[in-house]
TrEMBL record:
Gene3D superfamilies (UniProt xref): 1.25.40.390
Subcellular localization: Cell outer membrane
Family statement drawn from the similarity comment of this UniProt entry: Belongs to the SusD family.
Keywords per UniProt: Cell outer membrane, Membrane, Signal
Gene Ontology annotations for the cellular component aspect, listed alphabetically: cell outer membrane
Protein name: SusD family protein
Location of the RagB/SusD domain: 365-493
Pfam families, alphabetized: SusD-like_3 (PF14322), SusD_RagB (PF07980)
Residue stretches making up the SusD-like N-terminal domain: 93-235
Keyword Signal set for record: yes
Amino acid sequence: MKNNIVKIILFGVAATSVLSSCDRELVQVSSTQVASATAFTSSANFTQAINGAYTAIKGSGYFSTDTGNQLILPDLTTDNLILNPEGRQSNGLAYNWGFSNDNGSVTGLFNQAYFVISRANLPLLYLNNLPADAFRNNIEGQARAVRAAAHFDLVRAYCKIPTQSSDAKASLGIAYISAFAPDDNTATRNLTVDQVYLKIIDDLKFAAANITDNPTDKSKFNKAAVNGLLSRVYLYYGDYPNAILYGNLCIAASPSVGSISNFSSVWSSNNTDGVLLKILNSVNEAISTGVAYQQFATATGGNIRSEYVVPKSLNDLFAANDIRKSAYIRTSTYVSGSTNVVRNNVIKYAVNTGGATALNVIEPKYLRTAEVYLNVAEAAARTGTNDALANSLLNTLKAQRYSGYVPVTLTGAALLNEILLQRRLELAFENDRFFTLKRLGLPMQRTGEGANIDGTGIPATVQLIAPSNTKWQWPIPISAININPKIVQNPGY
């Protein structure tokens, strides 16, 4: 067993990674040795390289540690979370929109996502070492799917979203890195947002056509997951017919949104009902993905010390018969010395009893079928001609979330508002709220609440962010610009 340390400088990003898990070990060479093809002489080498790309998604700035963890940042910057006075004040500057080019909360994703892209591009460099067959097509499809996903996460965070404003598609994009070139520090932001989205779509369509389908393996992209991600991308792009088309392809292949009887165990065990893609997190790896939310929870209780808590207004939106309320939130008392306070704590990433893992060691869900239902329902409602489809999907989802649910038929604004409400509830604390507000061109409006369960307490300093505020586009890290001055900083920083 070896620990393999790889330093990759890509697009002005320096990243170091250590792999030590037996099933994920990727024997890589340094950037100065990578011209040698000896590391990619067997199918196993290529499989390990793809595993390495997925593993990098658990890196700091993506789905682990405190600062910049994407499982929490798009919620703590909105009306979904309140800073807990008893916590460690992690991501405190970002909570009040104190975004800057050296604030890791909003720059960490830039570094790590390009590292993921680098890893995805590495096996493509040696693709000709493989015979032209289904295995080779699958490797290329997997690499391009991961590459597209990481670019999408970058472009929605650091650039305008096409539906955000009328000028968004023509605005400043990001560099789309489609080849492994670790020593190239000349990349520029020469693409528009529109051009970046088209490249993402091209990669995903290739993946959908070439990946060897394995519907039972949720740890890698299969055809359903790729089509599901296409529905997300097309929804952000404002192409509602294609959001419906690819979403329906996903739903046909993987129709379960997670049954009401299984839903809680999707978060507290390794149950994959309704999961399209998850990021593996083994006992040996033990990456702490949930630590940004809280410490000291147990499977059924615990003296929970939260970093951020659920405001009363959001907690009240979860009805008593909504299974998501108990799956996502635990109201409990935190005691420390003279401190004795009751908080609404997020436990979505607290405990995995199925894997015998430590606290906060959870497998992040990158994409779930429930989101695809909501993507298609919203797209259908926005076309104004397919309310029947939107209602059908909405009722199917709600029947697996509310006990005793009775289907309803909605139209017009009432239908769209219900879809957006269910999106907020379903994807709460799951890397969505900030981006939904952003893509819809809505303000970030907090309620003036504090951390107490009755809504009292110290409110956030920043209560309102207008849709026109330039901080909806996160800053490019100053470290990247220092290495490659050709990178243009976003306006306002």
